[in-house]
């Protein structure tokens, strides 16, 4: 038997007062904002593209180079990776230097996850909106400011109504439901399952699946939250429920003194690895988990972070994994459950493009 759990209770309560019909787009994360607009049709990666302390755009090839995003409604056509961008928006929210709202033309699940986690762990959140109407997006391109309320997006005197993310509920197992209620589980596992179900609903996933292993990408030193997140989950009783490996750290844990790296940075980065080891992850610290003896087999359902590993797993190994945002991989490790989407499904793995290559052999 399977039950259905409708997530996003916060969002439903937030929108109860609204009776307008959806036109312009939908909420991804609820909230309110009143801010000047920074608009960009050019995708950007928050990782290495936005300063994680100041919120200033630092991508030298981006038109917004040098523009501060703090306190602004950032209207961005779409993100451009990396998996660690979720860690950057989390750090910005923690420090108070984040945009006051994110408005996407194409939904960016990586940044959405970072906002959800900031709300759950630090009670700091911002509204995230996806615009689905071309005319509404064009209005944002020329507008100076906007307001986001429970009734929608207001540009000048014009109200653009917004809908809930998805009406589709996520199917959960009886064990999932016990995790959601915290029955026999620690607070870290309960929080992890709540966030997984909420994220799955925002993605449009209809189901969760059990994974056989996890590769945690969220090991890099983005800022203070890089350590605060695993430490907090550890304090709440978090332990991995499936075998988990760790991505490379920003420091050589054994040789940083001999290499002459900064002691404060080195010790801080090492503590990130220590926290995941304390949660039960194995001491791997590699961005190539496919070289380990624990590599998955064809058809295995796994949850790997790290872009190159995801590509290798889905192609060469024939395993199945999405490209997960940093920290969603950690949440999956704590529960053993992941959203079912895209390349997890047979239809999501069918090729849509073929290449025909003609080779001319050179003879001596």
Outline the structure in words.
This protein is an alpha/beta fold and 364 residues long. The chain folds into 2 domains: 25-163, Glucose Oxidase, domain 1; 174-344, 2-Layer Sandwich (Aconitase, domain 3), CATH 3.30.499. Helix content is 32%, strand content 16%. It has 11 helices and 15 strands. The chain has helices at 9-15, 85-95, 109-122, 134-142, 174-181, 187-203, 225-235, 256-259, 263-278, 307-317, 328-335, and strands at 3-5, 25-29, 33-40, 73-76, 101-104, 128-131, 145-149, 152-155, 158-163, 170-172, 208-210, 214-216, 244-246, 303-304, 337-339. The strands form 4 sheets. The protein has an 8-stranded mixed beta barrel with strand order 2-6-5-4-3-7-8-9. It has a 3-stranded parallel sheet with strand order 13-12-14. It is globular and about 60 Å long. The termini are far apart. 45% of the residues are buried. The model is unreliable at 1-7 (pLDDT under 50). Residues 173-357 form the Phosphomevalonate dehydratase large subunit-like domain. Keywords: Iron, Lyase.
């Amino acid at each position: 038997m399977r039950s259905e759990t409708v997530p996003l209770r916060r969002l439903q309560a937030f929108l109860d007062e609204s009776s307008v019909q959806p036109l312009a787009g939908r909420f991804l994360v609820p909230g309110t904002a009143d801010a000047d607009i920074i608009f960009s049709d050019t995708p950007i990666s928050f990782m290495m593209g936005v300063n994680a302390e100041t919120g200033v755009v630092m991508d030298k090839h981006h038109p917004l180079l040098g523009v501060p995003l703090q306190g602004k409604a950032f209207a961005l056509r779409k993100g451009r990776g990396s998996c660690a961008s979720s860690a950057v928006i989390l750090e910005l929210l923690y420090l108070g230097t984040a945009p006051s709202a994110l408005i996407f033309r194409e939904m960016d699940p990586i940044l959405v996850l970072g906002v959800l986690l900031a709300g759950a762990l630090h009670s700091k959140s911002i509204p995230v909106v996806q615009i689905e109407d071309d005319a509404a997006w064009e209005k944002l391109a020329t507008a100076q400011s906007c307001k986001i309320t429970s009734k929608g997006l207001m540009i000048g005197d014009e109200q653009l109504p917004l809908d809930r993310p998805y009406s589709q509920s996520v199917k959960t197992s009886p064990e999932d439901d016990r995790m959601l209620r915290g029955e026999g589980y620690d607070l870290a596992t309960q929080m992890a399952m709540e966030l997984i179900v909420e994220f799955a609903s925002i993605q449009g996933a209809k189901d969760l699946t059990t994974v056989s292993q996890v590769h945690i990408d969220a090991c890099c030193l983005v800022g203070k939250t890089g350590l605060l997140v695993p430490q907090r989950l550890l304090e709440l009783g978090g332990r991995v429920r499936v075998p988990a490996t760790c991505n490379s750290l920003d420091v050589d844990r054994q040789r940083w003194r001999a290499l002459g790296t900064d002691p404060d940075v080195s010790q801080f980065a090492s503590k990130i690895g220590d926290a995941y080891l304390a949660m039960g992850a194995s001491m791997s610290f590699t961005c190539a988990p496919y070289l380990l003896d624990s590599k998955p087999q064809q058809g295995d359902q796994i949850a790997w972070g790290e872009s190159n590993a995801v590509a290798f797993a889905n192609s060469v190994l024939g395993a199945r994994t999405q490209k997960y945002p940093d920290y969603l991989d950690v949440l999956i490790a704590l529960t053993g459950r992941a959203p079912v989407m895209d390349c997890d499904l047979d239809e999501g793995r069918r090729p849509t493009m073929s290449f025909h290559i003609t080779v001319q052999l050179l003879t001596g």
